[in-house]
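May I ask for a sample protein chain and its fold as tokens?
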Amino acid sequence: MRKKLQDLTIKDAFMFAAVMSDTEQCRHLLELVLEMPILEVDVITEKSISYHPEYHGVRLDVLAEEAGTKRRFNVEMQVKTEHALAKRSRYYHAQMDMDALFAGEAYDKLSDTYVIFICDFAPFASELYRYSVRNMIWETKEPLNDGSQTIILSTKGKNKSEVSIELVNFLEYVGQENDEPASDDDYVRRIQEQIKRIKQNRDWEGKYMLLEEMMRDERMEGMQEGLKKGMQQGQERINQLIILLSKQNRSEDIIKAASDKEYQEKLLKEFNL
């Protein structure tokens, strides 16, 4: 059973996107994570990118673009353990680049891109709060300076003395199971207050109900498409079986298979179908 809006926490994708839709909240989080000043940002939540129906599209939790520099930031909340973060990061960077560069533009026009994963699990055995990933030249250990960077955050970090206390407070807040009393941390307290306002806002409630309905329709379409594909594949196997049996003049087997499911499966195995 799906959660109600009142039961959502910052870990839920909808609530995280709702909080980050506030440009100041998003800008402050980016400064906190990247440890550099961020100018005014434009924020898009639940941004879908897909260039071809046969390609794997992505739905980004939060996509922000900095005014002036055009630097782009993708922030993702990862609650379930993900073993392919590196490959996911690579794909997200590629999708963001394709979405940013127009036909005929030179590659040096590509904006810097940052993919940030907030993980409610320990992605690596070292149990750090933050992992900063950049491409480099292996032989010289020099940075490649290709403008792409991935930041992996973890709520299960153990190295408090090596990161800012504000980042630790934020990650510990994300990692808690339920909403706790107002935090002493100013940024966390502002997030808590915004979540409270979102839960009391009828517009946000309507948006959440609409999203749930759309996701339910997507799941139903996916199930129906899967069922249809399965039926088509099953029919193709039967057609191949009939053709092979006909070539061997085994008409009696064709008739028996039509009424005996177990015998039909036996014949399918016989022909490796």
Notes: The longest helix spans residues 202-247. The radius of gyration is 25 Å. The chain has two domains: 5-200, 218-270.
